[in-house]
Sequence to fold (63 residues):
Amino acid sequence: MPALNLTLNLSQHDDLYDQLVRMHEGLSDAESLRLWSRLALILINHIGDRQVTEEAIAAARPL
Fold:
């Protein structure tokens, strides 16, 4: 079973960050939250591993 990878594993990450920011342009706060939720569910489905997803949730949640 794969483990959650928290080390940098992405090329051109600054460009991707900019794209994530731009995808919210013109959206209300509620629309932006729905967009984040849809994106998260799409990526969770792609990962397809509940344990890895739960590790990511725990890692993302502030202490």
Remarks:
- Residues 28-63 form one domain.
- The chain is about 65% helix and 0% strand.
- The chain has a mean pLDDT of 94.
- The radius of gyration is 13 Å.
